[in-house]
């Protein structure tokens, strides 16, 4: 998610419907899906076609599959029965019993208690709610009835298991959260005799979702730790329009710890994993980092001393919160947003020299927002130098973001050397500083773009395309005045003083120009603009170095192809000519490797060549100026295919010769004649 890169995509056939969320089997690294209620599909990341993946048709409808890190996948059927995936795959058509009758499952969750998986689900029937606790490996099942609440009903559930006890949290329609404790019983003969007795679970009020007259109508609830919960919902204040918010509450002291408005609306769903929130905000998936401190009264009421505040403002680079809101809501853990903001403003006015050790990175960056340029860069260099090792990248990302924000506010400001120094000396990624390349494009900083393309592993395809288009549109005269790293091209492009390449005689892998012409039954024009050998580099030294940086950039073909189709025809031809030139240069070498630092590989060259031809083939076929280039490329490839075909014919003989050399005694002198047929 941080890299914004799609890793895989699979589709069911037209008419089929995925009927429960897809999960990952942590033990086998496989995906498990159910479509049309009963059809189970299992596949791995390298599988492309879902229709060819493993398929098993079950005898009953599946409600949900839960995957546990050390317990394996567990399947819950709509009838309330539970099976582990291993047991189910032994006999997919095995009979599945109905545990519930006339009840509808409303929620389910799976947990590990010791070495045993525990599955909990709630059902509803005629306004009554029931809780089931199952241990599938022990064939243990317990059913409870939830105590009714007058004029209110549960909207959602969540749970956690601690010390042989299930803690079930219920979010009710009356803006309250109730807690239910369920002991994980050990089955005994006495319990089996009393199994028919229905035990009613009592609940206790855990939290009122109201503060300062405002009431939160929750839609989703997750547990963060033993003292904190997060609630997604609509906050309604008297005389104001309701607004959707993400909130963190301290259940121990009944206080609102943090809140974040979501003006674009949500789907009502909230997920939490490894101290990150995941939610749909508008049309995008938003990721928000959080950190809960050890619960104390001082933290709950916003009186925690600055010196005790952990430095978690490094999460600024996620760009999901405004700077001020982030520091207040998620770092200082103060109570109400309005009160916290005023306290933050008071802290901002404190002198940096007065208490330098207590200021976090986020606070220092906020204090420097209006600082003069020389003060800003001096302080940011100190931040970079003193950044703690575990959070180094996040800290550098915050620094770069602060610099790019200043660039956007002040068009005349651009710390080119500082930015290049940061990119060159630290392992950054696009997701840590997403505005950096946009600012570099705006400022025409080709050297910085080159560095980013060579170093960032997660550049979006649209940005890669924009850089490629910008590089191809630059004139050679303009590039002469630009400082560009040419280490990737200087070793294989020979340049004279007038920047024209020195012509060199080339003999490709195993064949000459005459051999190539004989094979193709055609003669090349002596003064052709596109030489068959590709010996004239179609671009200058600087442009070649920039294009090489593009070739190094990682991409997903599916998402880059639509952008390449928009590349202007003349630029596409120029780029293909350069790729063809590189292809021929690689073919000169026995190991098909270009000399130099960060030179493109033969695989990168061929992949981009194929991608460009896929995107622009129709246009190039129609353009007269591309006809000869395509013809020469075809002849060169065909000659190489024939050459390697001939090599394949003698591969067996060469292997036999190698085997004989290994068997031969080193001290014996002999002359042998091997006849290759």
Automatic annotation (TrEMBL):
<keyword id="KW-0010">Activator</keyword>
<keyword id="KW-0539">Nucleus</keyword>
<dbReference type="Pfam" id="PF08168">
    <property type="entry name" value="NOL11_N"/>
</dbReference>
<dbReference type="GO" id="GO:0030490">
    <property type="term" value="P:maturation of SSU-rRNA"/>
</dbReference>
<dbReference type="InterPro" id="IPR012584">
    <property type="entry name" value="NOL11_N"/>
</dbReference>
<keyword id="KW-0698">rRNA processing</keyword>
<keyword id="KW-0804">Transcription</keyword>
<keyword id="KW-0805">Transcription regulation</keyword>
<dbReference type="Pfam" id="PF20998">
    <property type="entry name" value="Nol11_C"/>
</dbReference>
<dbReference type="GO" id="GO:0005730">
    <property type="term" value="C:nucleolus"/>
</dbReference>
<protein>
    <submittedName>
        <fullName>NOL11 protein</fullName>
    </submittedName>
</protein>
<dbReference type="InterPro" id="IPR048897">
    <property type="entry name" value="Nol11_C"/>
</dbReference>
<feature type="domain" description="Nucleolar protein 11 N-terminal">
    <location>
        <begin position="1"/>
        <end position="291"/>
    </location>
</feature>
<feature type="domain" description="Nucleolar protein 11 C-terminal">
    <location>
        <begin position="377"/>
        <end position="675"/>
    </location>
</feature>
<dbReference type="GO" id="GO:0003723">
    <property type="term" value="F:RNA binding"/>
</dbReference>
<dbReference type="InterPro" id="IPR042859">
    <property type="entry name" value="NOL11"/>
</dbReference>
């Amino acid at each position: 998610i941080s890299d914004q890169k799609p890793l895989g995509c699979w589709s069911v056939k037209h008419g089929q419907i995925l009927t429960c969320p897809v999960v990952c089997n942590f033990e086998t690294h496989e995906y498990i899906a159910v479509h049309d209620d009963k059809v189970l599909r299992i596949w791995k990341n390298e599988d492309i076609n879902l229709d060819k993946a493993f398929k098993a048709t079950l005898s009953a409808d599946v409600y949900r599959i839960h995957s546990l890190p050390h317990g394996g996948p567990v399947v819950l059927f709509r009838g309330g029965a539970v099976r582990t995936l291993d047991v189910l795959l032994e006999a997919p058509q095995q009979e599945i019993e109905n545990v519930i009758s006339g009840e509808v499952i409303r929620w389910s969750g799976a947990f590990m208690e010791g070495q045993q998986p525990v599955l909990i689900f709630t059902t509803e029937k005629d306004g009554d709610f029931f809780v089931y606790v199952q241990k599938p490996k022990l064939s243990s099942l317990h059913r409870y009835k939830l105590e009714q609440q007058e004029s209110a009903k549960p909207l959602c559930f969540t749970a956690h298991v601690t010390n042989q006890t299930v803690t079930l949290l219920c979010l009710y329609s009356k803006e309250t959260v109730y807690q239910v404790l369920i002991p994980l019983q050990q089955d005994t003969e006495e319990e089996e005799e009393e199994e028919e007795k229905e035990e009613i679970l009592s609940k206790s009020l855990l939290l009122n979702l109201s503060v300062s007259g405002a009431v939160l109508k929750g839609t989703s609830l997750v547990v963060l730790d033993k003292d904190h919960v997060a609630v997604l919902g609509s906050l309604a204040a008297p005389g104001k329009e309701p607004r959707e918010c993400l909130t963190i509450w301290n259940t121990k002291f009944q206080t609102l710890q943090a809140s974040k408005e979501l003006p674009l609306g949500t789907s009502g769903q909230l997920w939490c994993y490894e101290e990150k929130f995941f939610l749909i905000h508008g049309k995008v998936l938003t990721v928000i980092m959080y950190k809960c401190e050890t619960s104390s009264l001082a933290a709950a009421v916003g009186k925690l001393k600055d010196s005790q505040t952990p430095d978690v403002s490094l999460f600024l680079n996620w760009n999901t919160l405004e700077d001020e809101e982030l520091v207040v809501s998620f770092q200082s853990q103060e109570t109400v947003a309005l009160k916290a903001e005023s306290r933050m403003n008071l802290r901002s006015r404190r002198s940096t020299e007065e208490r330098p050790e207590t200021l976090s990175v986020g606070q220092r960056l906020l204090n420097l927002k209006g600082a003069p340029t020389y003060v800003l860069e001096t302080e940011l260099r100190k931040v970079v130098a003193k950044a703690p090792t575990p959070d180094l990248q996040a800290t550098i990302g915050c620094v770069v973001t602060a610099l790019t924000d200043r660039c956007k506010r002040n068009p005349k400001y651009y710390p080119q050397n500082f930015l290049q120094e940061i990119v060159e000396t630290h392992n950054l990624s696009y997701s840590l500083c997403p505005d950096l390349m946009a600012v570099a494009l705006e400022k025409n900083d080709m050297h910085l773009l080159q560095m980013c393309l060579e170093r960032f592993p997660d550049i979006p395809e649209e940005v890669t395309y924009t850089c490629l288009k910008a590089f191809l549109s630059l004139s050679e005269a303009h590039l002469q005045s630009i400082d560009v790293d040419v280490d990737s091209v200087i070793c294989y492009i020979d340049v004279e003083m007038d920047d024209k390449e020195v012509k060199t005689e080339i003999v490709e892998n195993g064949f000459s120009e005459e051999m190539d012409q004989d094979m193709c039954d055609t003669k090349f024009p002596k003064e052709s603009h596109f030489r068959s050998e590709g010996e004239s580099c179609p671009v200058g030294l600087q442009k070649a170095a920039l294009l090489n940086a593009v070739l190094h950039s990682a991409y997903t073909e599916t998402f880059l192809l639509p952008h390449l189709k928009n590349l202007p025809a003349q630029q596409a031809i120029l780029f293909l000519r350069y790729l063809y030139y590189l292809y021929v240069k690689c073919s000169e070498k026995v190991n098909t490797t270009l000399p130099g630092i960060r030179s493109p590989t033969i695989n990168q060259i061929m992949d981009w060549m194929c991608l460009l031809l896929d995107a622009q083939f129709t246009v190039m076929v129609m353009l007269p100026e591309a006809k000869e280039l395509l013809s020469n490329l075809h002849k060169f490839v065909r000659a190489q295919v024939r050459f390697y075909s001939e090599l394949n014919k003698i591969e067996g003989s060469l292997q036999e010769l190698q085997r004989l050399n290994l068997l031969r005694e080193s001290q014996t002198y002999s002359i042998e004649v091997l006849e290759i047929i």
